[in-house]
Design goal:
Helix content is about 60%, strand content about 5%. By secondary structure, the chain is mostly helical. It has two domains: about 1-140 and about 230-380, no CATH class; about 145-220, no CATH class. Strands 1-4 form a two-stranded antiparallel sheet. A two-stranded antiparallel sheet has the order 2-3. α3 (about 45-65) packs across α11 (about 300-305) and α4 (about 85-105) crosses α10 (about 270-290). The chain is elongated. The two termini are about 25 Å apart. This is Heparan-alpha-glucosaminide N-acetyltransferase catalytic domain-containing protein. InterPro entries: HGSNAT_cat. Keywords: Membrane, Transmembrane, Transmembrane helix.
């Protein structure tokens, strides 16, 4: 199925990923602080991330294995957005959130780069193992154009444009007004002498000149490039404002026929709509689980999310059913999986569609949620 082909095996338990919950702290000694950190590490872990990741894996299994019987949960043929069309954006969203939280705890750039490189190599290895190696998709997406013959032309053009801009573009003198309250130079205008080509210094390089000419100097960041909110209300206000803003933007563009929702084209409205939906769902999970403490109904999603790698490989990629189907009596149709599908679900409910849906819900999703819960109790996790 399409969702299986798109998903990268990029999940891990993120055991070290935590947020500083509002109100935490203390003035105890160092040893007391370490003990408190060990005891409260589970409470400080953002359970909403695990629940959201688990929801994404569950959606993936559902749409891959039951989507063929129900059009409403399968991928939209062209314009529109169904349940299956949320899987990939939700996955990318939670991966981005987890990466930001994980890397903010690594203060050394070299350590962060090392972690990224190692993780990338692991993902490439697992991608080759699970997806069968080289993908021939580029040859099928040429739309009548021989991409093999012209792709190097595009690469050469991009290289020439980059080199010409960097080394041949003339950078004139430019000025700026310094603003810092209380400073003796506040309000003064300073002139930066350039008048050069090919300079790679911070003040006179061509890239900075293009940025200033297009966006203006005020677009440059002088402080940290993201806002870190420590309180629950501040986080939720920020997340919900962005989520609803993107959601409304996507809906407006779609229903005014300006830019329809289209997953195949990854249209701007589709990106806004799914990203906004992901932000709202994460905010809802965060409010219910981490703020209000309503964890019991979502524990099974947390279990799946904490062992997302295992559930993805075994269930969503079909490794476990394929292994079980390898053991059969006389014909491949006489395997345990096929027997359960026919006799426990399809024949009992007298419906192929309903039977397959119930099989996916109970024999796959519930089964792997229970397995993930048992592994969680044992402290066993599969992570990269």
């Amino acid at each position: 199925m399409e969702a299986k082909k798109e998903i990268e095996v990029a999940t891990e338990r993120d055991a070290e990923v935590v947020l500083q919950v509002a109100g935490e702290g203390g003035n105890g000694g160092k040893e007391e602080g370490r003990a408190a950190m060990d005891v409260s590490s589970r409470s400080r872990r953002v359970a909403a991330l695990d629940a959201f990741r688990g929801l994404t894996i569950v959606m993936m299994i559902l749409v891959d294995d039951a989507g063929g019987a129900y059009e409403k949960i399968d991928h939209s043929p062209w314009n529109g957005c169904t349940l299956a069309d949320f899987v990939m954006p939700f996955f990318l969203f939670i991966v981005g959130v987890a990466i930001a939280l994980a890397l903010k705890r690594i203060t050394q750039v070299s350590a962060a780069v090392k972690k990224i490189v190692i993780r990338t190599l692991k993902l490439l290895l697992w991608g080759l193992i699970l997806q069968g190696g080289y993908s021939h998709a580029p040859d099928d997406l040429s739309y009548g154009v021989d991409m093999k013959k012209i792709r190097w032309i595009f690469g050469c053009v991009a290289f020439v444009v980059y080199m010409a801009t960097t080394y041949a573009l003339y950078v004139p003198d430019w000025s700026f007004v310094f603003h810092r309250e209380g400073d003796v130079n506040d309000g003064k205008r300073f002139v930066v002498k350039c008048g050069v080509r090919g300079n790679l210094d911070p003040a006179c390089n061509a890239v900075g000149y293009v940025d200033r000419a297009v966006w203006g100097i005020n677009h440059l960041y002088t402080q940290p490039v993201w806002i870190r909110s420590k309180g629950h209300s501040e986080r939720l206000k920020h997340w919900l404002l962005m989520g609803f803003g993107l959601l409304i933007c996507g809906i407006t563009l779609h229903f005014t026929n300006a830019i329809p929702l289209n997953k195949q084209l990854y249209s701007f409205s589709y990106v806004c709509f799914t990203a906004g939906s992901a932000g709202i769902v994460l905010s809802a999970f965060y409010a219910m689980i981490d703020v209000w403490g309503i964890r019991t109904p979502f524990l099974w999603l947390e279990w799946v999310g904490m062992n997302a790698m295992l559930v993805f490989v075994m269930a969503a990629q079909g490794i476990f059913p394929a292994f079980v189907n390898g053991w059969y009596y006389e014909t491949p149709d006489n395997s345990l999986v096929h027997w359960i599908q026919r006799h426990v679900f399809v024949k009992v409910w007298h419906s192929e569609r309903l039977g397959m849906l119930l099989y996916v819900l109970f024999a796959e999703i519930v089964f792997w949620a229970v397995v993930a819960g048992i592994l969680h109790k044992l402290g066993l996790y599969w992570k990269l």
